[in-house]
UniProtKB/TrEMBL annotation:
Annotated ranges, domain PTHB1 platform: 490-597
Pfam families named in the record: PHTB1_N, PTHB1_CtH, PTHB1_GAE, PTHB1_hp, PTHB1_pf
Cross-referenced InterPro entries: PHTB1_GAE_dom, PHTB1_N_dom, PTHB1, PTHB1_CtH_dom, PTHB1_hp_dom, PTHB1_pf_dom
Any GO BP: cilium assembly
Domain PTHB1 N-terminal stretches: 1-363
Domain (PTHB1 GAE): residue spans on this chain: 437-489
Domain called PTHB1 hairpin: residue spans: 600-702
Species name: Neovison vison (American mink)
Signal peptide range in chain numbering: none
GO cellular component, one term: BBSome
Domain of life, per lineage: Eukaryota
Protein name (record): Bardet-Biedl syndrome 9
PTHB1 C-terminal helix bundle domain: residues covered: 704-779
Length: 847
């Protein structure tokens, strides 16, 4: 017995020994009350027509006498019932009843009763059509785009479509190659009839083609149904589904698209209105009926499918969302609004069981029987408990059983930075210009609880910092594992107190939500001796001569960082934010936040990218030229060697001069390659610092979470070192393109674009700069970074005031100028709690 039963709201049994099929059930406001309440209309093969309006006193009640509004015996078997605008001159709803040789249209009306019996209902025959051929089924709709009325199309048993324009007969057409009739439906969006032929093909015929076609079959017709001259009847499109269809339904819940649903004997198909398969679902049980209806999720359609196992399955597209059990096998299912209850599921069986139900569950009343109690032996339980504890203890001691996350205490790595510099510097380069290069000792401690197997310690710092030793190996026996430990180096290792500068080429302003803090409290030991009283200005001088000035506003909650070099701003800006956070945490203030409301300095950033890329191109050219000169040098050597081995002396023809000149060129080119590599290394270090700064500013500007900042860092800083084979530009461009086509995509069309699987050095940096600007633009419009594929759905984005529009189409891309990469200006002031960055060995250095 299934827990998920259909909750019986109202039910009844119709007649005795009557038979019903899928066309014998219809719902609609057939009496035109206008209150939105549907009536249940049922016809049987015995010719009985019944109209119900259920009013149960409580859920699960059977039918009362007043629930049956009308019962009429029409004598002829009822094949199908439909409710529509079938009478000319009025838009009132009428009831169309299809018999085997007759089509009747009735009006249903009710009169108020003056006695206790209540209202009385009667039907009135409006018109009827006698059919010359035996009918199978029918459909209706606004054929040809007519307004305010419905036309009826009847399919006969021999494959003829007969169209009736309300009271008059229009025309009849034989479907080509028809053997047995199949289900028939009309699509108002494409103005076509859709059926499934005996060839197991879904076929679509345009109404206009039917109207003007000449029947291909020369069958005898009556004078009323003779065919006019016209074109040969052709099919609009076909689709082979490989099985016979039970029913067809056209769903068009919006004006943008419509779907054709076909229920087969083993599969369930959803087609586009042009015949292409949208999706299909293989059914586990033999279906008996189905009904698509609108879904609460946009872009999806729910479908009720009944089967011969007394089950009703609810699918959302191809996903099974609910399964409920019915007391009978449904041959017809409808959904409507009955007695102010929306979404009532009405099912009809072939023997007349009519039920109105809703979905839900009831608690199970089953109670587990009590087990026989037995006497407890505490001594035996103690022995069993000790044995289990021993087994658990042995398992914990065994190797490789539990995951490494359960063994956090097996190995601990800690690093401690010495508070003072070494008395004798251990730096390989003792001086940079006039500045002495200091060194500091870092003590790394390994604590292991169990024996280790070949422990290897690797230490990494970002350039231009260097290590005296970066690899340590310890020989032990035990379990291999990996542990990471990060530490901060003192700021004075690469920075000295300097004279503040009043003017600078590059400036940044960081806003906070707290009063400004004295810079002496944040950076003790960096104040200039002659300016100890000026606590709001402080100068820094990097080893090598670069200067950075930090200013704290006396009146506003702002800090300004300025320098002549753009890349020099990052270290002081990052250090300022970290030290402000630590300062307010010590004060017990938890709501401190930093923000950046200025323009993102993309133009300065792009200049560093162009310089780095230019050095890469120069390196390629120099290496190519060096290779050519080396080939030339070896060729001259071979010529000279041949001359020297010749027994007959011959003039050298200036080969020695050519060899000497080529040798000098090779030496000069090798020196140029080394110089370019040094410049490229310095340029990449500057580019990394500028990239850190841009990521920091974007995080403050768009209040990104630590996870989103980590995604940006992974995209912009994928390489620890730059090489000619795999460079920074192509790697970052591929990573940003992936973000733009996934989590930052604006449509599913962008997501469908495929990325190149091979990374090659680009011709220029215009594409990379455009993608970086586009990424900032998508973030400014509300895009969010994430790695989950479920979150790549297109979002409704609102552009803050002042953001520069970034052209995205191919036509706009052709006309884009260099000024398209101008910095974003006038961004909305964003206050965001600054995420604590994941500090790398160079990031965040302490005093």
């Amino acid at each position: 017995m299934s827990l998920f039963k259909a909750r019986n709201w109202w039910s009844t049994v119709l007649g005795e020994k009557e038979e019903f099929d899928q066309g014998c059930l219809c719902l609609g406001d057939v009496d035109n009350t206008g209150n939105g309440q549907d009536k249940i209309i049922v016809g049987s093969f015995m010719g009985y027509l019944r109209i119900f309006n259920p009013h149960p006193v409580k859920t699960g009640d059977g039918a009362q006498a007043e629930d049956l509004l009308l019962e009429v015996h029409l004598r002829d078997p009822i094949l199908q019932l439909e409710v529509g605008k079938f009478v000319s001159g009025t838009e009132m709803l009428h009831l169309a009843v299809l018999h085997s040789r007759k089509l009747c249209v009735y009006s249903v009306s009710g009169t108020l009763g003056n006695v206790e019996h209540g209202n009385q209902y009667q039907i009135k025959l409006m018109y009827e059509h006698n059919l010359q051929r035996t009918a199978c089924n029918m459909t209706y709709g606004s054929f040809g785009g007519v307004k305010g009325r419905d036309l009826i199309c009847i399919q006969s048993m021999d494959g003829m479509l007969m169209v009736f324009e309300q009271e008059s007969y229009a025309f009849g057409r034989f479907l080509p190659g028809s053997l047995l009739p199949g289900p028939l439906a009309y699509s108002s969006r494409t103005d076509s009839f859709i059926t499934v032929s005996s060839c197991r093909q879904v076929e679509s015929y345009k109404y206009q083609v039917l109207a003007f076609a000449t029947d291909a079959d020369k069958r005898q017709e009556t004078e009323q149904q003779k065919l006019g001259s016209g074109k040969r009847l052709t099919v609009d499109w076909t689709l082979n589904i490989g099985e016979q269809a039970l029913d067809i339904c056209i769903v068009s819940f919006n004006q943008s698209a419509s779907s054709v649903f076909v229920l087969g004997e083993r599969n369930f198909f959803c087609l586009k209105d042009n015949g292409q398969i949208r999706f299909m679902k293989k059914l586990d049980c033999s279906p008996s009926c189905f009904l698509p209806y609108c879904s609460v999720s946009e872009g999806t359609i729910n479908t009720l499918i009944g089967n011969h196992n007394n089950m009703l399955h609810i699918y959302q597209d191809v996903t099974l969302k609910w399964a409920t059990q019915l007391p009978h096998i449904p041959v017809a299912v409808r959904v409507g609004c009955v007695h102010d209850l929306k979404g009532v599921i009405v099912t009809l069986s072939d023997d007349g069981h009519l039920q109105c139900s809703y979905l839900g569950t009831d608690p199970s009343l089953f109670q587990a029987p009590k087990v026989e109690s037995r006497e407890l032996h505490y001594d035996e339980l103690d022995i069993e408990l000790k044995e289990l504890q021993r087994i658990i203890k042995d398992v914990n001691k065994s190797q490789g059983i539990w995951p490494m996350t359960e063994r956090e205490d097996d190995l601990k790595v800690s690093a401690m930075v010495s508070p003072n510099f070494d008395s004798v510097s251990q730096a390989t380069d003792v001086a940079v210009g006039t500045d002495l290069v200091p060194s500091v000792t870092v003590k790394v401690t390994l604590q292991n609880r169990l024996a280790l197997q070949k422990a290897k310690l690797s230490v990494y710092v970002q350039p231009p910092l260097v290590l005296t030793c970066d690899q340590f190996t310890f020989e032990f026996m035990g379990i291999p594992r990996v542990i990471q430990c990060k530490f901060r180096l003192p700021l004075k290792l690469i920075c000295l107190p300097g004279q503040p500068s009043k003017t600078a080429s590059h400036k940044l302003t960081i806003d906070t939500n707290k009063s400004p803090v004295s810079l002496l409290s944040l950076f003790p030991g960096f104040a200039h001796q002659s300016e100890d009283d000026q606590v709001n200005v402080m100068g820094f001088r990097f080893l090598g001569g670069s200067r950075v000035t930090l200013l704290a506003s006396k009146t506003s909650q702002r800090y300004r960082i300025q320098s002549e070099q753009f890349e020099d701003l990052w270290l002081i800006t990052n250090e300022l934010i970290i030290r402000l956070q630590e300062y307010f945490e010590k004060q017990g203030i938890k709501d401190f936040a930093c923000s950046f409301s200025g323009s993102v300095p993309l133009q300065e950033y792009f200049e560093l990218i162009d310089h780095h890329f230019e050095l890469r191109i120069n390196g390629e050219k120099l290496e190519e030229l060096l290779s050519e000169r080396a080939v030339q040098f070896r060729a001259i050597q071979r010529r000279l060697l041949t001359r020297f081995k010749d027994k007959t002396p011959a003039p050298l023809q200036h080969l020695d001069t050519l060899l000497d000149g080529t040798y000098k060129q090779v030496i000069a080119l090798a020196d140029a390659v080394e110089e370019n590599q040094d410049n490229l290394f310095q340029s990449f270090t500057k580019l990394r610092s500028a990239t850190h700064l841009v990521i920091l500013l974007i995080g403050l500007w768009q209040k990104l979470s630590p996870d989103q900042v980590a995604i940006l860092e992974a995209a912009f800083l994928p390489l620890q070192q730059d090489t000619q084979e795999l460079g920074w530009e192509e790697t970052v461009d591929a990573a940003i393109s992936h973000l733009l086509k996934t989590c930052l995509s604006k449509s599913s069309k962008e997501q469908a674009l495929s990325l190149s699987s091979q990374l090659n050095i680009p011709k220029d940096t215009s594409r990379l700069k455009k993608h970086i600007a586009l990424l900032c633009d998508r973030l400014a419009k509300g895009g969010r970074l994430c790695l989950s594929t479920d979150a790549v759905a297109p979002q409704t984005m609102v552009m803050p005031g002042g953001c520069t529009t970034i052209p995205e189409s191919d036509l706009e891309e052709r006309s884009i100028e260099q000024d398209s990469t101008e910095p974003f200006t006038n961004h909305k002031h964003l206050i965001a709690e600054t995420p604590m960055p994941d500090i790398s060995p160079l990031q965040g250095v302490s005093e």
